[in-house]
Write a structure and sequence with these properties.
Blueprint (H helix, E strand, L loop, with lengths): L8 H4 L5 H29 L10 H29 L9 H25 L1 H12 L3 H8 L4 H9 L15 H17 L4 H15 L3 H55 L17
Helix pairs in contact: 2-3, 2-4, 2-5, 3-4, 3-10, 4-10, 7-8, 7-10, 9-10
Length: about 280
């Protein structure tokens, strides 16, 4: 009788099944783009370019953050499940090692999908959002210039209908000088007494206001721009926190999905009572 030779089939299998990982990552990235397209459509249906219509900014921010987390959970679960289900079978490994490798497959698939989404799909997502509302971007740029000092100077030099003398034509040299002074005031949080007096004189000369009203306008304009800048800073911080929460949720659900996919891969799930009789070769 010929001797029986036992072969460690687990040794022939690679530790990381890159084919399964890449398949899960691509599926996760594609589903992310699909859900984001759906989210853009739903989001634009509840917002309005008019301040007194649609949902409030805070409500929209919270809703968008929760939607980002939901997208990460769904897409990462699908990607992790495929990475675990399509991997090679490790027949001679103990349960703890199989569990670790399944979670590793899910985590690597999530990481690859995240990098792919940012590097490749970032442009597509940007075009999707921009193309969905072609009329919104010009309106936003018109009321929110990229340089806050422009907004500050515009507010200061706005003609006043009740002024005692008519407003004079604008001079680019005055605007450039005031922009530099305004930028310094925004950076330091306040205008120095000399700068405040000078800017008030320019405002009075350009708008027809008296000196006291011009000084009041300078202070009011600075406070308004500071408030708008602070709101933008807080919005960016909240977005970063929501994004971090979504990425963390995506990583966790990708690993859970990979574990479930690995369990189904190693079992005869189509047979009745397969969960009760599930065994792995040790």
């Amino acid at each position: 009788m010929a001797p029986v030779v036992e072969t460690d089939i687990a040794a022939d299998a690679t530790t990381l099944s890159w084919g399964a990982v890449i398949a899960g990552a691509v599926a996760s990235a594609a589903m992310t783009l699909l859900l984001l397209a759906l989210g853009v459509g739903l989001g634009l249906s509840v917002v309005s370019p008019w301040s007194d219509q649609g949902v409030s900014a805070s409500t929209f921010s919270v809703g968008a953050g929760l939607f980002m987390i939901a997208v990460a959970m769904l897409s990462s679960t699908v990607g992790g499940y495929l990475a675990g289900r399509l991997r090679s079978r490790w027949a001679l490994l103990n349960d703890n090692e199989v569990y670790f490798r399944d979670t590793a497959h899910g985590f690597v698939a999530w990481a690859l999908a995240t990098v792919f989404s940012i590097g490749v799909l970032g442009g597509a997502i940007t075009h999707l959002v921009a193309g969905a509302a072609p009329g919104v971007a010009p309106a936003v740029s018109a009321v929110a210039p990229s340089d806050p000092s422009d907004l500050l100077v515009d507010a200061m030099l706005r003609p006043d209908a009740s002024a005692s003398s008519p407003a004079r034509l604008d001079n680019p040299n005055f605007r450039d000088e005031m922009k530099r002074a305004a930028a310094t005031g925004l950076r330091e949080g306040k205008l120095s007494p000399a700068t405040r007096t000078y800017m008030a004189r320019v405002i009075a000369a350009r708008t027809g206001l008296n000196q006291a009203d011009a000084e009041q306008r300078a202070d009011q304009a600075l406070n308004e721009v500071k408030e708008a800048t602070d709101k933008a800073r807080k919005a960016a911080a909240h977005f970063a926190l929501w994004l971090a929460a979504a990425m963390l949720a995506g990583a966790v659900f990708a690993m859970l999905g990979a574990v479930e996919g690995g369990v189904l891969r190693d079992s005869r799930w189509w047979e009745p009572g397969w969960r009760n009789t599930l065994t792995r070769t040790h």
